[in-house]
Amino acid sequence: MESQKQVLERLRAAFQSGVTVPLQFRLTQLQSLLSLLEDNETQILEALHKDLAKPKFEAVLSEIDIVVNDLCYTISNLATWIQPSYVSKNLATKLDECFIRKEPLGVVLIISAWNYPLQLIVGPLIGAIAAGNCAILKPSEISRATERLLAELIPKYLSQECFAVICGGAEETTSLLENRFDHIFYTGSQAVARNILRAAAAHLTPVTLELGGKCPCLIYGNVNVLAAAKRLVWSKFFNAGQSCVAPDYVLCTLEMREELLPAIVKALATFYGSEPRQSVDFGRIVTDRHWDRLTALLAKSQGRVVIGGDSSKEDKYFAPTVIVDLDTSDALMQEEIFGPIMPIITIESLDQGISIINRMEKPLALYAFSDDSKIVTTVLERTSSGGFCSNDGIVHMTIPTLPFGGVGASGMGSYHGRWTYETFSHRRACMLRSWGLERIGMLRYPPYTESNLGWLRWATTTKKKSWGWCSVM
Ligand code: NAD
User: Fold this and answer.
1) Angle formed by the axes of helices 144-157 and 23-39, to 10°?
2) 415 lines ligand 1 (CB under 6 A)
């Protein structure tokens, strides 16, 4: 079997040969990736069910269709994206050709998490291919069935010279990271992200970090409680709460909480029936270890369970659980929950809700529910988060035109649609100089004079328009 080093050398040689550069090569590979998804939908759904008991409906929407849409969008637009962008110039460079050329970075490493094991590999891969890179893919070892399927299918559909899957966990990833890559795209926990950054620092490798955190849902003012409860329950308990953008905790007034709780009970009963454990539409916790962590977290909480709370290790079931009467010092508020437990913290004012959010690390997503657009705007303007969505959860990440990524501790960089292509491209600043305008060009040469300095400044200074914007000619 080839060593990691040999795989990397093979890909590096392919990249150096220039094979990935022509638009036609990129489009053919993207088309093959689309065929991989179309030809193997049944196997993919089976693997996702094996890993997470992912309901077909959720898997189709959040693993297959989301990347198929991204692929189609990229295939349709790539010919435009790869065009150089011409920039404005000043008088001294008027005859020159000044443009930004998007170039591939080289051999990139994509490391991903287990909760959306297909989407989180294929999504970044689309941009890596589109931008003309070679890529090593390192799926999560925890979602084993999907990891194996990717290792089997990727070489069948994509160029083996340019793309490879390396399987394994912490040990294999650590040794892989000893090599020099041209970019590392990592999706996973904040703890492991620190290792990734340390390893990248040794080679000064640029990194994209797609991390998690605690995504708040602030509900304030009048809302359609039944609709709000349905949207909240759907976005929280989708994939059994194992979504990086799931609402992690709810902030609302006591009055709102009392209205919301019966509406949540109703929504849960409508979605999953009286016994969610029997519902084929409710997923499972990925491993025993993750189930143990959630059980311990719930046990440590000082809050009062008002819905759910039951679980069974045998089938890694954890009931949709709602917990109240807790404050921000509670165990459930110290780490990302990443499971079907929803704490509701009561607040007395909008200011208090905003200040709770702002005291914590910047989240990956922030949700504000209110009929009053002024309240939504206030939350938007006074907080920071990777993404923002009002009156719903998760859906802002489903359109490829919005960049998806974190800020602060929830990540750096972004992707989806054109943003993935940009992430894996180098914007090379190019100036093709003419021999003309030498009368201006020669002003810069010694011996320096005050007069030449004056003319040069006139010819090169960015002019400020009266209404405040700067422009060059
Ligand atoms: P993880 O950090 O345990 O694992 C992610 C990847 O890192 C896996 O491929 C794993 O093999 C590798 N890895 C694990 N330990 C390692 C180590 N010591 N050194 C090097 N590599 C190592 O993360 P996870 O549990 O798989 O994912 C859960 C986290 O990911 C949550 O915080 C969630 O919010 C976040 N997440 C973020 C996004 C996003 O798009 N922002 C998406 C999904 C998940």
Assistant:
1) 130
2) no
